[in-house]
Design a protein that fits this description.
With 190 residues, the protein is an alpha+beta fold. It contains 3 helices and 7 strands.
Length: 190
């Protein structure tokens, strides 16, 4: 089932998220719905707060990056890179701050350069409750950090300079008011 994506300005995107356990109601169906929702919106990541849930859960499917010419040399890293992150904790952020143009399904039609560390080590449970600890140092690290920020109540716009924030303020206000057309289901703040 395709779920509505909560838009910029909704308080759920800023709420503190809570850990879940194996008994979380209908978790396999929720994960399936999240992937269906993300794919229908042409996204590569989606966090539970973006669908109105304040739980520590996000998903990623980096497969689309395998089609980009700039990643040809490492495209095998992205093919079928589909992950579920439950109760994730970033253990380390390392390396240079790298700039990358980011967007967000909750903040449609706004893309800005964001600096993030080039490498992360993350600990999480997958959908089968296997505990994983992995290190990433490519675009996957970027996408993971972006989605991880969602479960921390942080949006990519929070990482922009004051000038950049000022320049996009009107567009953010339009999103908050629902004055935007997108090709997927959204829930706008009331």
């Amino acid at each position: 089932m395709i779920l509505p994506i909560y838009a910029y300005g909704d308080p759920i995107l800023r709420k503190e998220t809570i850990e879940i356990d194996k008994n979380y109601p209908d978790l396999p169906q929720l994960i399936k719905n999240m992937f269906e929702t993300m794919h229908s919106a042409n996204g590569v990541g989606l966090a539970a707060p973006q669908i109105g849930l304040n739980i520590r859960l996000f998903i990623i499917d980096a497969t689309p990056f395998s089609e980009y010419e700039e990643y040809e040399a490492i495209k095998d890293r992205f093919v079928n890179f589909r992950r579920v992150f439950i109760n994730a904790k970033i253990l380390k952020r390392e390396g240079e701050l790298m700039k990358f143009n980011e967007g967000c399904l909750s903040i449609p039609e706004i893309h800005e350069d964001v600096k993030r560390p080039e490498s992360i080590t993350i600990e999480y449970y997958d959908e089968n409750w296997n505990k994983c600890t992995e290190t990433y140092d490519d675009v996957r690290a970027r996408v993971i950090q972006h989605e991880y920020d969602h479960i921390e109540g942080i949006l990519f716009t929070d990482l922009l300079s004051p000038l950049k924030k000022k320049l996009i303020n009107r567009r953010l206000t339009d999103i908050t008011k629902g004055n935007i057309k997108v090709g997927y289901k959204m829930k706008f703040p009331k």
